[in-house]
Specification:
Layout lengths: L1 H13 L3 H20 L13 H12 L9 H4 L2 H16 L1 H11 L6 H10 L8 H31 L1 H16 L20 H16 L1 H9 L8 H25 L11 H13 L16 H13 L12 H15 L6 E2 L2 E2 L2 H28 L5 H12 L14 H36 L13
Antiparallel strand pairs: 1-2
Membrane topology: Multi-pass membrane protein
GO molecular function: potassium:chloride symporter activity
Protein name: ATP synthase subunit J
């Protein structure tokens, strides 16, 4: 009987697609994380958290978002904070990456099925050298987070003492690199008290950017170095990232320069620093050095756009991804210029990639619009722009908030939890599902081509 049950469970896993296993795996990690956070030992009062608050926090941590319904620094105990940072690390690097490393360290063989699953989890198209790449992800993450923690310790240890300062440094380095945005400073303050601290701004921004570039791009930066010799993927990611950072910095500086609620009373050099930080953080990081609720409407709108775009494929970031934006812009430009082929860096972009990019944008937009409608129903007394901002933040797994999250109803918490979950896994599962359907169509149709039809557009 036991043997039959094991065979049945094994058959269930082998018959699942990588996308389905990823969804199941992430959901399982979130559930167990939520159970741990409901334990009395997880809170400072010892009373235990409600399951819905624990579930929301676990979802936010695993989906590396940073939206919180209770203050992380003052509500959770040391055990609770350890659970949260552990969930952030799993969510940032991917549970399949960590599982693979345990198998490798134990000397276990990685099967083709597992390699396909790993490839899907980190959003790569090839299984060639995948185990070696996972090793690079694992060890480079440890090194980068350790360097970040050492640099943050320069500020935090003198301020909080050796033990707490070290813990703060490690927690915020991991949270920043994984683009999570959880903080321990209390009162939902994030990094606002360090708006004028160069070390904190520099280290956190660097960790966010590196984490959001993707491991394939950082590998090119380390081993290839010359831009001309990098892969087309890395070139697109670096180009789009640079443009978004510069454009965001300029507009935030202009929109918030005289705003007394954010940067209006800061020295000019601090305004430059705060503007750059605010340009970096919407790319799915979630930290802030100025009060988000005090931003002007143009800045809020710009932040929403940056949150929707997010980071890059194969990174710790969310959103529709920089490469998706790049392909959409190139497609529009080619149509306006009357060009048949879409070309960048002396390479043409294939049709399937364009279709996947358009699908990700359309499906992502549909999810955001639907969730905005849901929250308008569950939170009828909240200003419209606050609801829209919160949904964009959840879908992009960013974590920035105008202050709405702690006051959400149970229905609102569930809706945002689903949005974070879909935002973290959506682009990966969508791209994989489309790739499978295209392959299935080719196998069924073979070399035959159906008659063409014409539709009027615009």
């Amino acid at each position: 009987m036991e043997l039959k049950r094991i065979r049945k469970n094994n058959r269930f896993l082998t018959q699942r697609s990588p996308a389905e296993i990823l969804i199941f795996g992430f959901a399982l990690v979130i559930f167990f994380g939520a159970i741990l956070l409901t334990l009395p030992i997880a809170t400072q009062t010892g009373e235990g958290s409600s399951f819905i608050n624990a579930l929301f926090t676990a979802t936010s941590a695993v989906c590396v978002t940073g939206l919180v319904v209770v203050d992380t620094g003052t509500y959770w105990s040391v055990f609770g904070k350890f659970v949260i940072i552990f969930l952030i690390q799993i969510g940032g690097l991917g549970f399949m990456s960590l599982t693979t490393m345990f198998f490798v360290l134990a000397g276990k063989r990685i099967t083709i099925k597992n390699r396909l699953l790993i490839s899907s989890s980190i959003n790569t198209d090839s299984i060639s050298g995948i185990v070696k790449f996972i090793k690079y992800i694992f060890f480079s993450s440890i090194i980068i987070e350790s360097i970040g923690a050492l640099l943050l310790a320069i500020v935090f240890i003198p301020e909080y003492g050796l033990l707490q300062g070290t813990a703060f440094s490690l927690f915020h380095a991991i949270s920043a690199f994984c683009n999570a945005g959880f903080d321990l400073f209390g009162n939902f303050s994030s990094l606002t008290q360090y708006v004028d601290n160069f070390i904190v701004n520099f280290v956190v921004c660097s960790l966010i950017i590196i984490g959001g570039l993707g491991f394939a791009v950082t590998s090119d930066l380390i081993y290839v170095r010359k831009f001309e010799k990098m892969s087309m993927h890395s070139k697109i990611v670096l180009s789009i990232t640079a443009v978004l950072l510069v454009v965001g910095f300029i507009f935030f500086f202009i929109f918030e320069f005289n705003n007394p609620k954010t940067m209006g009373n800061l020295p000019i050099h601090v305004k430059f620093m705060a503007s750059f930080f605010q340009s970096v953080t919407p790319r799915t990081a979630g930290y802030n050095t100025v009060d988000i609720a005090g931003l002007t409407l143009p800045s809020l709108f710009l932040t929403m756009l940056l949150m929707f775009i997010g980071g890059s494929p194969g990174s710790t970031a969310g959103g529709i991804k920089t490469t998706t934006l790049g392909l959409i812009v190139l497609t529009v430009a080619s149509v306006l210029n009357g060009k048949k082929d879409i070309v960048i860096f002396k390479r043409s972009i294939l049709g399937p990639a364009i279709r996947r990019a358009i699908s990700v944008v359309v499906i992502g937009s549909t999810i955001v619009i639907f969730m905005i409608f849901v929250l308008l129903c569950t939170e009828p007394n909240v200003p419209f722009q606050n609801i829209v901002f919160e949904v964009f933040s959840a879908f992009g797994t960013v974590g920035l908030s105008t202050g709405l999250t702690p006051h959400l109803s149970i229905g609102g918490k569930i809706a945002l939890s689903i949005t974070m979950f879909v935002g973290r896994l959506g682009p990966l599962t969508i791209a994989y599902a489309i790739a499978r359907s295209e392959k299935h169509s080719r196998e069924n149709i073979g070399n035959f081509k159906l008659p063409e039809g014409n539709v009027m557009i615009g």
